[in-house]
Amino acid sequence: MGQARDRVNYSFKRLKEIPEELRPREKLLKLGPENLSDEELLAVILGSGSKGADVLSLSKELIKMGWEELEKKSVEELLKVRGLGLVKALQVKALVELSKRFKGGKSRISIRNPQEAFEFLKDKFDERRESLIALYLDLSNRLLDWEVVAIGNVNTVFSKPKDILFKAVKLSANGIIIAHNHPQGEPSPSNEDLNFTERLKKACELLGFELLDHLILSEGRYFSFREEGVL
């Protein structure tokens, strides 16, 4: 039998027990974020702990809960975590919400006017055929989601209001912007465009949604029903 060795301890260390150069901030600066554990990354965001718990112990406790559980918890419930005060509970909720918005690749951009809608939409259409796109916005005019609702031939695109409203209900959207392109010709509304917009507006009102605008795009230009006073 060899000489007895000191017991190796894999338990989680408190921040003050870690050499300064290996603490989360210093480690991030020297080695990059990919070399930090989840607890260390959260510790960098939280910045400091409290009298009851240092930042690494606090981060470990939060990570152990899991992201889905943190998403469900209210600020009041988070305050029950030992060492987590109001400011840090709000930081955690803000971080979880930000992560949720970026998840899936569709960041929550804001679309507050026809120009911003045009900038978002201008590269979403197939120039060879007419398509109808719907944007779904929340109360703060942030984009919840968007989809191609219908595809037609060179000159026409057909859809029914229910094709647009089904997803609005699913997303609990507040406002809807629709847009279609004119592959050939001016970005001005036809009688069919006007009639469809009126039908959709009435359907939106019945279900408590707001039809914010209808844009027609063609050759780098756009026509906004809202801007022109048609809607």
Overview of the structural elements:
With 231 residues, the protein is α+β, with helices and mostly antiparallel strands. The protein folds into two domains: 15-102; 114-224, Cytidine Deaminase, domain 2. It has nine helices and five strands. The protein has helices at residues 24-31, 38-46, 55-65, 67-72, 75-78, 86-102, 114-121, 161-171, 191-207; strands at 131-137, 143-151, 175-181, 210-218, 221-224. It has a five-stranded mixed sheet with strand order 2-1-3-4-5, sandwiched between helices. The relative contact order is 0.09. Mean pLDDT is 84; it is low at 1-13.
Compact description:
The protein is α+β, with helices and mostly antiparallel strands and 231 residues long.
CATH topology of the largest domain: Cytidine Deaminase, domain 2
Using only C-alpha atoms, the radius of gyration works out to 26 Å
Number of domains: 2
Strand order of the largest sheet: 2-1-3-4-5
**Average predicted local confidence, pLDDT:** 84
Roughly how many Å apart are the termini? Answer: 88 Å
Shape: elongated
Sum up the structure in keywords.
2 domains, 9 helices, alpha+beta, five-stranded mixed sheet, 231 residues, Cytidine Deaminase, domain 2, disordered N terminus, 39% helix
How are the secondary structure elements laid out?
Layout: H1 24-31, H2 38-46, H3 55-65, H4 67-72, H5 75-78, H6 86-102, H7 114-121, E1 131-137, E2 143-151, H8 161-171, E3 175-181, H9 191-207, E4 210-218, E5 221-224
Parallel strand pairs: 3-4
Antiparallel strand pairs: 1-2, 1-3, 4-5
Helix pairs in contact: 2-3
